[in-house]
Amino acid sequence: xxxxxxxxxxYQNLPNKAGFFGEYGGQFVPPQLKKALEEVTAAYEIAxxxxxxxxxxxxxxxDYVGRPSPLFFAKNxxxxxxxxxxxxxxxxxxxxxxxxxxxxxxxxxxxxxxGKKKLIAETGAGQHGVALATAAxxxxxxxxxxxxxxxxxxxxxxxxxxxxxGAKVITVKSGGRCLKDAVDSAFAxxxxxxxxTFFGIGSIVGPHPYPMxxxxxxxxxxxxxxxxxxxxxxxxxxxxxACVGGGxxxxxxxxxxxxxxxxQMIGVEPAGKSFKPGDHAATLTLGxxxxxxxxxxxxxxxxxxxxxxVHSIASGLDYPGVGPQxxxxxxxxxxxxxxxxxxxxxxxxxxxxxxxxxxPALESAHAIAYxxxxxxxxxxxxxxxxxxxxRGDKDLDYVGKLLKxxx
Length: 407
Fold this sequence. Notes:
By secondary structure, this protein is of the alpha/beta class. It has 2 domains: 19-62 and 100-214, Rossmann fold (3-Layer(aba) Sandwich), CATH 3.40.50; 66-97 and 220-402, Rossmann fold. The chain is built from 16 helices and 14 strands. The protein has helices at residues 31-49, 51-65, 75-81, 100-113, 127-139, 149-154, 156-164, 179-192, 210-218, 220-233, 248-254, 283-286, 324-331, 342-356, 362-374, 396-402; strands at residues 20-21, 24-25, 71-73, 85-90, 118-123, 142-148, 168-172, 197-199, 239-243, 264-272, 288-292, 295-299, 335-341, 383-388.
């Protein structure tokens, strides 16, 4: 595949007007949805340049979310591992407990400006569902969240939170009963009422403009981290590490550093139980290009070219596709993508909890696990910045059952 020569500000100019990052992205949807997506695109382009919209959004990030989120030097973790310094971008301290609130408030605010009455979305681990339900309540909008049956059981505390916030939770019992199937179900519901409904996609996936729009709302993570690490270390980090399912938290961190060529970017995918089909969700590691949910991207596929069943201990990562910008960055070798399995993620979940007093989401534990492997191989003057994308409250019941704590 021909690689595009890097130029100053090249990455910040993507996607193009058709929504492509190189060959990835686009808008592969039924004809009846084209008009609805064009409406969203036009509204978002206006909102980007509207000082009143931006002021209201920034005020919400500050006064409602609690931004900026801290950049924490994990001194105990660093000393225990030896080698590089490890910093944690504390997105787990945001209102609702994860990075998801950053783009959910943006989507809800845009929906309100467009005159929509209802927000609809999918969720895996439930963090996006909780964040969107929160934003819907704040904006006075109805909310409907589609969630796979497996995830409803694994993440039941988040189901209760969504319901408490007034959202209608639809349990999806078709297919693999996980995140991909929840997306399918939400898209089908959206098709039936797109005139009154705004689809609040939960990651940098789907048809244009969602990969761009969600990335832009999440870019606050990297912008803050860029300033914060310079103040703390008087230099940029040597490595950025973030988990990747759809890829919103990783791209939120990466985006502000894309033109800093000395900064190495590492996305961590779930290796699950094994590399057998259906046992993992390592899309960029083992997938190949294909079309899913309105976008052309890397995709785990079966022999017939259909999306494979996937698995991860972390519900938010069990998705057979990935955001098209990540696919592009992989091909350009601007970012490196690695894997962490269920066992390693669970060990990191427990280790960080006990050594730093921080209980990470199982999704974020994948990034922690890789940083734990990387740090001891580096000199002490090197810096690793990990995006701690969410907190582990939602995972406690599930982890307790895995470890048989209550038996």
